[in-house]
Design brief:
The complex is a heterodimer of chains A (375) and B (343). With 375 residues, chain A is mainly alpha-helical. Helices cover 74% and strands 0% of the residues of chain A. The chains are: A mainly alpha (375), B mainly alpha (343).
Chain lengths: 375, 343
């Protein structure tokens, strides 16, 4: 479902009768072109979102943009490591539970007299361990990541529930909780957005300009080929899961600061929002395709639309429709486009075939051949 | 294309893997009995009739949805929209009763199933026609249906007074000591299970999940079968919505949210391979029963309810690890030599 088949290959079953001139739809060149198209579509969508916002009162002011960032910060941060994981053809659904677990643990440790700095470090370590658990189960035992991370989704949330139960911890030091709700000095950027931008640049460089980034794409496109060309597939996937766990627990720390409280149910259900942003950003669920730029743009589009709808007093649940429709459009449109392209190509080839086959029947080989070549 | 090859061509292999499948269901039954036995030792109330009835009716809805989910997962797809479908269907059935207090019960069920079939058909069409991965399609539908539900509900809720008594009977009454809910779900499980086992269309689902390309080349109408699987999954989720309303007699905009992950968990614990091609609805239904029994056992054994989720999660991980171990053993048994695949 996730990694073993890719749509072009499935569709290429018709390719059995097709002559070898047929171009492989998954060549680097065409996917690169598709990628460019998707990102330009996202820029248009962003412009659309801003225009829609423009027609909403109170949209164009600095405070509003601060809140736009504040509301999406943690989700955006968690989307970055997930992007890399999805590009390798795996998935991590435990991200929001890890956020909840680390928020809970931070509260618990602080309640039990740990200095807040140590508590944060401990939480990040636990995040790395949780990520490693995912990674080991996926890479060493060879279990499907969707099943594993649904399991750890429940497990991490359950651990959080055991740690704090129905209690909630407040009274964090004011210097810290202020960070969660004030912008970076002299700007209107929330601290979580600042972290997101820094992380996005790092991730972008790693994914698009470093050898390990190319390896990640190679793993997603064809794990076996990547393995045989010397890429340490399992180790890279494991590292990505550890990274995801750590970054998500960092998002949990930010979440705790923003709400100045820690509860076991922090961020319940956010995993689907995170997955939605990654997919909306043009990352193929089958792996091997996508870019950080796309995810950053998708985050911006999603944040602006959600905020504009909030300003228009649209109910949070109803706003889900927009998330869903955007997600659907983002995958259906490119597929329809390639489908039409493929259909046209096949028809063209079939016509040529038919003309070529007709040749002996008509006893006029010369004319039909030229016709066929022209077609 | 598929990395782990299951050689099913030899007759011995078929028999052996079928045996192991049966062993899979037996192992769930065994786990059920162990959990049940230990809990009863700690708390004798756990084994009385009312408690068992609660175990059965508590698992019924998830088991029902797990049946539909099995059909979809066996074809190497997934349906994440079931929780939202259940919520929407429950509310619409409630709306029917609000508008027509004397509406016949059969009509209520038809409305519920109809809503589900409609959404299942949308899922199926988008998945098969545009070849978009079903995980994405149904994730989007999860949001859209939930949003539509919230728009219709508009912060109101269905009150128990609106629901006719004869309808509520289905949800919490029992006959010969067995809850109606459990009877309905059991009948559906057996019917679908038989269909999957003995009918050509049912076998086609397994063929599609084992190797989509090979199935298409062998003349299996893949698109139509996958579409049907989504329609059945949606329809059962819709029926689940009607039964949800019958059971709880009240529903608001969040009814059924989060069910999708419980259902997928039940299916996986029940031994249905998440990459398609194997597993039965009996296993999935037993998986739902096992998860619910463990939850209730923790309560009965006076373990804090806060442990529920962690135990369920650990169990889920154990179940898939066990499955993997089992399938590796099958592979080794059937290939004779211990050939391993690289990635």
């Amino acid at each position: 479902m996730l990694s073993e088949t890719t749509p072009p290959q499935t569709a290429a079953s018709g390719a059995v009768q097709v002559p070898p001139t047929r171009r492989n739809p998954q060549t680097n060149e065409s996917s690169w072109r598709g990628l460019l198209r998707w990102e330009s579509a996202l820029v248009v969508a962003l412009a659309g979102a801003l225009i829609y916002g423009h027609r909403t009162t109170n949209f164009w002011n600095a405070t509003n943009f601060f809140y736009i960032g504040l509301n999406i910060g943690e989700i955006a941060i968690m989307a970055l490591p997930l992007t890399l994981i999805v590009i390798t053809g795996e998935i991590d659904l435990s991200v929001a539970s890890m956020l909840g677990l680390s928020s809970t643990l931070l509260g618990y440790l602080y309640l039990h007299g740990w200095p807040i700095g140590f508590a944060i470090v401990a939480v990040l370590v636990v995040g790395a361990i949780g990520g490693a658990l995912n990674g080991v189960l996926v890479t060493r035992l060879g279990l499907p990541s969707i099943a594993v991370t649904i399991g750890t989704l429940t497990l991490f949330r359950g651990l959080a529930e055991i740690i704090l139960g129905a209690k909630s911890v407040g009274k964090f030091p004011a210097t810290l909780t202020k960070i969660g709700v004030i912008p970076i000095p002299h700007t209107q950027i929330a601290y979580s957005v600042g972290c997101f931008v820094v992380l996005a640049i790092i991730y972008g460089v790693v994914l698009h300009a470093m050898p390990v980034g190319r390896s990640i794409f190679a793993i997603g496109l064809q794990p076996e080929a990547a393995h045989f060309s010397g890429i340490r597939v399992k180790r890279i996937k494991l590292m990505l899961y550890v990274l995801s766990g750590t970054v998500c627990s960092f998002a949990g720390v930010l979440w705790t600061m923003r709400f100045a409280t820690s509860r076991y149910d922090a961020g319940t259900g956010l995993e689907l929002n995170v997955v939605a942003i990654v997919l909306f950003g043009g990352i193929s669920i089958f792996g091997g395709r996508g870019s950080i730029v796309g995810v950053v743009l998708a985050t911006a589009v999603m944040a602006c639309i959600q905020q504009a709808l909030t300003l228009r007093n649209v109910d949070a649940q109803v706003r889900n429709i927009v998330t869903g429709v955007l997600l659907l459009i983002s995958v259906v449109l490119p597929n329809i486009a390639t489908g039409i392209h493929r259909l046209r190509e096949r028809r063209r080839l079939r016509n040529r075939d038919r003309l070529a086959h007709r040749a002996p029947d008509l006893h006029q080989p010369t004319t039909t051949t030229t016709e066929g070549q022209r077609a | 294309m598929s990395l782990t090859v299951a050689p099913i061509s030899r007759p011995g292999g078929v028999r052996r893997s079928e045996l192991l499948l049966r062993a899979r269901e037996l192992s769930i039954v065994l786990a059920l009995l162990i959990v049940f036995g230990f809990t009863t030792l700690k708390n004798h109330e756990f084994a009385n009739a009312a408690s068992i009835r609660q175990l059965l009716s508590g698992a019924s809805l998830v088991a029902l949805l797990a049946v539909g989910q099995t059909l979809v997962v066996v074809t190497r797809n997934v349906d994440l929209s079931v929780g939202s479908v259940l919520g929407l269907s429950a509310y619409l059935v409630g709306t029917l009763f609000r508008a027509h207090p004397n509406a016949p019960i059969a009509l209520a069920f038809l409305v519920g199933i109809g809503v589900g079939v409609l959404i299942g058909a949308i899922n199926g069409i988008i998945t098969t026609v545009t070849r978009v991965p079903s995980l994405v399609v149904t994730l989007a539908m999860l949001y859209i249906v939930r949003g539509v539900d919230a728009e219709i509900v508009n912060a109101k809720q269905i009150d128990p007074t609106l629901i006719p008594h004869s309808f509520q009977v289905v949800g919490y009454e029992h006959i010969f000591g067995i809850p109606w809910l459990a009877i309905i779900v059991t009948v559906i499980v057996i019917a679908v299970g038989f269909y999957m086992r003995s009918f050509r269309a049912g076998r086609d689902l397994y063929a599609i999940g084992s190797n989509p390309d090979a199935a298409t080349l062998a003349g299996v109408p893949s698109g139509r079968r996958v579409f049907t699987a989504f329609v059945v999954s949606g329809g059962l989720a819709g029926l689940g919505g009607a039964l949800f309303l019958a059971q709880f007699a009240t529903v608001n905009a969040t009814g059924g949210s989060g069910y999708e992950l419980n259902v997928v968990a039940a299916v996986v614990v029940g031994g249905v391979a998440i990459f398609g091609g194997s597993g039965t609805v009996f296993g999935a239904a037993l998986g739902a029963l096992l998860l619910n029994t463990i939850n209730q056992a923790l309560v009965a054994a006076k373990v804090s309810a806060f442990w529920n989720q962690a135990v369920a999660g650990a169990l889920l991980l154990a179940a898939i690890a066990f499955d993997r171990w089992l399938s590796l053993r099958v592979e080794r048994l059937e290939s004779g030599r211990g050939e391993r695949h690289v990635v």
